[in-house]
Input
Amino acid sequence: MRDYGAPALKHGGLGIASFLTALTALFIAFLDFVVAQYLGAIHEGSRASATFEGAVLILCMFLSLIAIGLGAAAVRDKEFKRVFAVWGLSIALGTILLFGAIVAFGLAGGVTVA
Output
C-alpha cells in the first residue's frame, strides 16, 4: 500500500462564501448600471433614480467589504485550499476600486443630475 502523504485539501466554506458574496456584489453593481442607463433614458436623470442608484451602490460596497473580511479569514486558514478566497478578495477589491473611480468621476463633475 502506498502512502501519498497528507490528504488532499478541500475548499473551505469561508473562501466559497467570499467568492459568492463578491460575485453577488459585482452582479448587483452591473445590474445597477444597466438600470441607471434605462432610467436615465426615460427620466433624464431624476433625483429619485439617482437616490436609488446610490443606495444600490452602497449595498454593493457593503457586500464587497463583507467579501473582503470573509476572504481574509479564509486566506489565513491553513486547513483548506485558498483558491476561492483569493478570487473573492480580488473581485471584491476590484469592485471597491471601481466604486472609487465612479465616486471620483462624479466628484470631478462628470455627471450632472437635474
Q: What stands out?
A: Residues 1 and 7 are 15 Å apart (CA to CA).
